[in-house]
Amino acid sequence: MLNLCDIQDSTEEASRQLAFFFPDFSKKRTGQNVEKTLALIRPSLLKERRNSILQRIKDDGFTIAMQKEIVLTEDEARQFYKEHENEDFFPTLLQHMTSGPTLALALVRENAVQHWRDLLGPKTLEEAKEKSPASLRAEYAVDTMPLNQLHGSSSADTAQKELEFFFHVEHTLAVIKPTALKEHKDDILERVKNAGFIISQMKETNLNREMAAKFYKAHEGKPFFDQLVDYMSDFQLLHYKGLPGAPLITHDENILIWQQRWT
């Protein structure tokens, strides 16, 4: 029986196979305002109102593409907040950020950076309470902590750097073959999502014998090669585009391809 799923064991092979199905994958998309930004829920707020703030984030139209709960070391906190090292509040900030778990979130939506900053309001609690009492920093202030409890990236470039600080990004591609998809489609999709993947693209195309042979060139000469090529060239693929910059899944009535995993 043919294997039901192909998985790459090297980044080079994953890149080659991604380029085969998605030649424009590495190109920067234009004409779209969908962005990612980093949000941090600091220890005191995370402990007291975790579920409330996460629901508020979703209600405001953000998709949580990635999340990671982490207790920062002092060195990590110093590195992340290096721009504030000469501020009077820096020692208090270090102490607080190493006191317990912080929740790092990658938030996705149109104009995510500015929208999140607008929702947060002024940086200092005093100004937030006085000038923007409906802002998140004012609403979610913790009485026992003088620091605001929510962080947002200041620009798209900063967001990229800050996201890389907390989340390592890899691209991979897997092909689920016809039999598995027909019999276990819903279960496969659910397990993919539960494993930390996000579906962002699907692709419809006809895979002829020449294309199948090219895709599986690494197996040429092996006993199963002709059978595999024949099997994979009998079906049509389905294409769908979702959120850019998020992990991708390509699916077909026959072949399901997913690409980009956040770990």
Automatic annotation (TrEMBL):
<dbReference type="Pfam" id="PF00334">
    <property type="entry name" value="NDK"/>
</dbReference>
<comment type="similarity">
    <text>Belongs to the NDK family.</text>
</comment>
<dbReference type="GO" id="GO:0004550">
    <property type="term" value="F:nucleoside diphosphate kinase activity"/>
</dbReference>
<dbReference type="GO" id="GO:0006228">
    <property type="term" value="P:UTP biosynthetic process"/>
</dbReference>
<dbReference type="InterPro" id="IPR034907">
    <property type="entry name" value="NDK-like_dom"/>
</dbReference>
<dbReference type="InterPro" id="IPR001564">
    <property type="entry name" value="Nucleoside_diP_kinase"/>
</dbReference>
<dbReference type="GO" id="GO:0006183">
    <property type="term" value="P:GTP biosynthetic process"/>
</dbReference>
<feature type="domain" description="Nucleoside diphosphate kinase-like">
    <location>
        <begin position="34"/>
        <end position="174"/>
    </location>
</feature>
<dbReference type="GO" id="GO:0006241">
    <property type="term" value="P:CTP biosynthetic process"/>
</dbReference>
<dbReference type="InterPro" id="IPR036850">
    <property type="entry name" value="NDK-like_dom_sf"/>
</dbReference>
<dbReference type="InterPro" id="IPR051766">
    <property type="entry name" value="TXND_domain-containing"/>
</dbReference>
<protein>
    <submittedName>
        <fullName>NME/NM23 family member 8</fullName>
    </submittedName>
</protein>
